[in-house]
Structure formats: C-alpha cells, structure tokens
Write a structure and sequence with these properties.
single chain
C-alpha cells in the first residue's frame, strides 16, 4: 500500500489496525484488561484497532503485545522501493473554475 505522498516514508496504519483487531479478537480477556496489560488506555486500543493514528510510544507498546517489530509496518519512500507500484491515488486538482462575473442587477450567472 502506498501513501498519498509516496515520496515520503510512512506507517501502514491499515495493516497495523488489521493485526491489532485480529489479535484482540483472538484474546478473550476484553479491551479493558488488555489495555491495562499493554500500558495504553481503552481509547488508544480502540483507535489503533480502528485504524486511527496513535502516538509512537503506544505503537511500540502495541507492537510488543502483537509480537511484531515496529518496522514491520514501515512504508519506505518510493525512491527506496525496488519495484514500486504506480499509485492510483488522485493528489492534484485539475478542475478549472471560471471566474464569476457580477451582473448589473446583482444576480450570479
């Protein structure tokens, strides 16, 4: 998966969230108990499992819980990838807007 700006390094939040969800589902102790054991809040755990960003220290704590290395989720910049895929992400605006001209009676055209 490429980021919207493939020229910059990034973190694969989708894969991280997927791994968090699958590991949390496999453990029947519940979010409150797991959050306390991992060292994060229930909100942090929920955000991570939902794909939202969490702080680096919480990512590290969750990676320790998952038994994964933080670098497993590292997305290198496009220039460092051997066979980069072309991103199909639309990042520019090519829609031209015509200037608005006020008519003499104040109505918009």
């Amino acid at each position: 998966m490429l980021t919207s700006d493939a020229a910059r390094a990034s973190f694969d939040w989708r894969r991280f969230a997927r791994d968090c969800r699958s590991t949390l589902r496999a453990d029947d102790r519940g979010y409150r108990t797991l959050a306390r054991e991992i060292g994060v809040t229930i909100s942090d755990l929920s955000r991570a499992a939902g794909g939202s960003n969490v702080s680096v220290e919480k990512v590290i704590a969750l990676c320790d819980f998952l038994g994964r290395d933080v670098r497993d989720y590292y997305l290198p910049p496009l220039s460092q990838m051997e066979n980069p895929e072309k991103s199909n992400c639309f990042t520019g605006c090519n829609v031209k807007q015509q200037p608005r001209h006020a008519s003499s009676n104040g109505e918009q055209p």
